[in-house]
Structures are given as structure tokens and as C-alpha cells.
Specification:
The chain is α+β, with helices and mostly antiparallel strands. 26% of the residues lie in helices and 27% in strands. It has one domain. A hairpin with a 3-residue loop joins strand 2 and strand 3. It starts with a helix and ends with a strand.
Length: 88
Amino acid sequence: MISSEQVQRIASVLRSQALNEAVVSALRSEYPGIHFTYCMEDDLPNNEPVLEGESFNIYLVDGREHCLCLTNNYENATGIVIAEVIEE
């Protein structure tokens, strides 16, 4: 389970720094029980993030079954996808 408070704290970190692998690595260290994935927003078409930022969106991952899937259910969430948004 991932709480909405954890997502808000993670978003605060992402708002205060430039998004890159080092920031995601630091989040992995700070939240060892959560699996983090970093990708580009256009890698996740037709999905609704649980949190939208100016330069990033946050999605939740449900890893309870054999296949991973995105979810909006915090209680079922086992991981977080941080998707970088690049304005063109």
C-alpha cells in the first residue's frame, strides 16, 4: 500500500529539484519498500495519473498479480511511476 501522503511528499521533492535519475535513485533510498520507475509521459498514453505536476506526472502500479498494471487505488499500489513531462 502506498498512501496519498507519501505521493504528496514525493511530489514535493520532484517540484523542488530537476527530475533525473539521481533524484529517482534518492527516492528509492528514502522509500525502500516502494518500487520506482522513471519514464517519459508519452510512454503512458491513455492513462490517468494520480497526481499531475508541471514537469512530471505520478502513476501508481499494482504488482499484486502476475502482471503489473497501473491503478488509481492507493491500497493496491506497490510501486510508483514518475513520468517526465516535456513541453514542446
